[in-house]
Amino acid sequence: MRPQILLFGDSITQQSFRSGGWGAAVADIYSRKVDVVLRGYGGYNTRWALFLLHHIFPLVSATPPVAVTIFFGANDAALLGGTGKKQHVPVNEYKENLRRIVQHIKNLSRNTLVVLITPPPIDQQGRREFARSQYGDKASESPDRTNEVTGAYAEECVNLAKELGLPSINLWSKMQETEGWQKKFLSDGLHLTPEGNAVVSQEVVKIFDEAGFSDLPYDFPQHSEIDGENPEKAFLQQCAAV
Amino acid sequence: MRPQILLFGDSITQQSFRSGGWGAAVADIYSRKVDVVLRGYGGYNTRWALFLLHHIFPLVSATPPVAVTIFFGANDAALLGGTGKKQHVPVNEYKENLRRIVQHIKNLSRNTLVVLITPPPIDQQGRREFARSQYGDKASESPDRTNEVTGAYAEECVNLAKELGLPSINLWSKMQETEGWQKKFLSDGLHLTPEGNAVVSQEVVKIFDEAGFSDLPYDFPQHSEIDGENPEKAFLQQCAAV
């Protein structure tokens, strides 16, 4: 059994295996070392994520994941007055829901590396343009999300990581450090372009590598180690313990 | 437990989660329905793949994969006189090795859909250019692979699929139907460009869809089915059986 990394989140996780996606990039970087398990649920907030906890992370699991990324907040931060109001979760509840998710995973396995990722920033102009491209004149004039409100969720996500001593990625801040982040990193004011995906995979891999994941062994001999005349030798050496 | 699709092959499978890769595309298309498990081994031929069979497909597995793609031959077809001679496997042995792989998987589970994929065609000029870019004047003048020889392996792969009544993808033929396949589909005369990856994912998905994979259920409610006031309702309905 290879170690597993589980990606738990909303659409930004669900879509992370599209071309240029951050999840596929992580899977590629640790190929032959780790399996990446995709558990992304488009449109979900942390309140709904709680319903999935015992299904995705059963407490009787024989082999808990070595790492979990928890990447929610983009929907929790939807405004009560906008088209995503059903998804809205108050910021304090968001933080407590995240805490329950972390605690559940830590109950499963204290050694699992849990990484909290904040929602990305919001490009309100991009959201408006996207709404108009979808609904034309019928597009709502009130914003579904604002960058400022999403920023408050990002802050609580990072605060919780500090409280619990977990690594975190403040994507909301990080992306805004780059000139032109609005169009460079976001495709519709919210979801990620390939460049935006690259920011996530770089930050995630940085944390995983600090935890030693790049030193994990390959699951079978590299072909350069195989003697064409006596292939069994390399396999006997490396597969005996598998 | 979600159903699993396992991708078993050489570097063209191992690299299939790179940007634009066919494996990631399959994972994306069936996201929330199926887990795609990557078992690609760069440089491997079918002779070496046999050493992995019992590790990758243990006979005691409680949940065998619903589908397996078997995608070898690019290294088996390396010429005895070239730089990849260590990887060479005679074409008859290649066919019998493939047969053993299929039989092992079918012993594990008769219901597993096994798909045989032939190696892609070889662009010999592309191979020469690649060798020169790597080794300059020291690059070997004798080809490591030829399109004709690889074609013989592709033919035996398809023949075996017919004998065993399995679906197959003749990538060697399929790609050569397109004008300019040499540079359009191959990055170094052998490995796949994003366009080449797209050919594979389209053909694989065609077979999976014919087997009904697109009708597999989502693993949890779509967010549109969740009532914001009573979210538990959707989860009680859909998670009771999970």
User: In terms of per-residue confidence, which ranges of chain A show pLDDT below 50 for 5 or more consecutive residues?
Assistant: none
Quote the distance from N terminus to C terminus of chain A. 8 Å
By CATH reckoning, the class of chain A would read Alpha Beta
Biggest β-sheet of chain A: count, sense, barrel?
5 strands, parallel
Helix and strand run of chain A: EHHEHEHEHHEHHHH
The assigned structural class of chain A equals: alpha/beta
Largest interface: A-B, 42 and 42 residues
CATH architecture title of chain A: 3-Layer(aba) Sandwich
Helix content percent band of chain A: 40-55%
Provide the β-strand percentage band of chain A: 5-15%
Strand order of the largest sheet of chain A: 2-1-3-4-5
Summed up, the helix count of chain A is 10
CATH superfamily name of chain A?
SGNH hydrolase
Please report the total strand number of chain A as a whole number. Answer: 5
The outline of chain A comes out as globular
Number of domains of chain A: 1
What is the subunit organization of this protein? Answer: homodimer
Round the Cα radius of gyration of chain A to an integer and report it: 20 Å
> In the CATH scheme, what's the topology name of chain A?
Rossmann fold
Family (chains A, B): Belongs to the 'GDSL' lipolytic enzyme family.
Biased composition (Basic and acidic residues) (chains A, B): 138-147
Protein name (chains A, B): GDSL esterase/lipase
Region (Disordered) (chains A, B): 127-148
